[in-house]
Amino acid sequence: MVLLDNINLKTFNTFGIQANAKGIIPIYNEINVFEVLAAQIRPLRILGGGSNILLTGDVNAYILKNEIKGIEIIDEDENQVLVQVGAGEKWHQFVLWALSQNLAGVENLSLIPGSVGAAPMQNIGAYGVEQESVFHCLKAIHLESGVRKVFFKDECKFGYRDSIFKTLVKDQYFITHVVYILKKKNYTVRTDYGAINDILAVKGITSPTIHQVSDAIIEIRKSKLPNPVEIGNAGSFFKNPVVPVEKFGTLLDKYKYIPSYPVSETEVKIPAGWLIEKAGFKGLKRNNIGVHHLQALVLVNYGDGNGKEIHQLAMEICQTVQNNFDIIIEPEVNIW
Ligand code: EPU
């Protein structure tokens, strides 16, 4: 086990915020977790790719940095495979691997930053697909007792950017592996969301392969989401709020072109990015932080920005959206 003392976390979070932790311990395998538990190192916090956190101050804990790698087919039949992925693998590396093997299911989730272990926690989603649609189970270690546990899909209580790992058992388990079901054949590609079909049409593609869908999504994401390597950010900072259809009706009377996605017969999801833009925050720059000029859902650190300042701006945005639209929006990003 390696313990690096008193570490600056700037390079461990995609927002690029400076903050110190008591220490950081890279975890390469299950044995490393048991070593940490045996050495009674406490308190502990778990970090994956650091692409969905906002650090608002120093972290008074030792950080377990998930570095468990490996992608392995553990079972298959003529239609599908079960793939076990180390939770420390980069999500997009896993997508690229699936594409290289001609396995379908994760192509719409191309280019999402972060680690495989964080994917079920957040139930990541994009372009009409959520990770739960390919999830089979995950393997984890309980940090109090050291007991190994397998969580199957039903137990994970997946919701929109939500799971049991963000609620009931938050910070209690270290996820070591995630097992996904990918299709060899008999699948349909999803191109109905957003601009995917438009991009394919421009290219004259009528029955796209998973590779072409992935390429189109990468093009869309690159065109409107800032690359964290260039500008610090954590993707969508807020969740899109779900409102009753009656409430949506009153907004529609006032804003004829308000975008929306149906959720059920009684509820509608409204893009927080649209609400934030209408509230006047899009492109705002304040000292070294701000709201991205192409996508108002993304808060940015232009360099040396401070996490507390970003948090304050986020709270101001929530308050203004509530005052203007009577809708509550909340962060999707984990605030540390
Ligand atoms: N919109 C605006 N102004 C903005 C941003 C968006 O008017 O500044 C409008 C767009 O014109 C569009 C609608 O809002 O009509 C939706 O925008 P977009 O398709 O960009 O998607 P989103 O709702 O902003 C969600 C996810 C993204 C995911 C995309 C595509 C959440 C919180 N965000 O964004 O996920 O990539 O859909 O599926 O659900 C992430 O979670 O980090 C993330 C980037």
Description:
With 336 residues, this protein is of the alpha+beta class. It folds into three domains: 4-66, Uridine Diphospho-n-acetylenolpyruvylglucosamine Reductase, domain 2; 71-183, Uridine Diphospho-n-acetylenolpyruvylglucosamine Reductase, domain 3 (2-Layer Sandwich), CATH 3.30.465; 232-335, Uridine Diphospho-n-acetylenolpyruvylglucosamine Reductase, domain 1 (Alpha-Beta Complex), CATH 3.90.78. A hairpin with a 4-residue loop joins strand 15 and strand 16 (267-269). The protein is globular. The protein has helices at residues 30-38, 91-100, 118-122, 153-156, 196-202, 210-224, 245-254, 272-278, 307-325, and strands spanning 4-8, 20-27, 44-47, 53-54, 59-66, 71-76, 80-86, 125-126, 129-130, 135-142, 148-152, 173-183, 232-233, 242-244, 261-262, 267-269, 285-286, 289-291, 299-301, 334-335. Uridine-diphosphate-2(N-acetylglucosaminyl) butyric acid is lined by residues 126-127, 194, 235-236, 239-240, 259, 271, 273-274, 277, 282, 295-297, 332.
The domain count comes to 3
CATH topology of the largest domain, which one? Uridine Diphospho-n-acetylenolpyruvylglucosamine Reductase, domain 3
> How are helices and strands ordered from N to C?
EEHEEEEEHHEEEEHEHHEEHEEHEEEHE
Q: So, CATH architecture of the largest domain?
A: 2-Layer Sandwich
Strand content: 25-35%
How would a crystallographer describe the biggest sheet?
5 strands, antiparallel
Q: Based on DSSP secondary structure assignment, what is the total number of beta strands? A: 20
The residue fraction in helices comes out at 25-40%
What ligands does this structure carry?
uridine-diphosphate-2(N-acetylglucosaminyl) butyric acid
Whole-Å distance between the termini?
25 Å
Give me the Rg, rounded: 20 Å
Shape type? globular
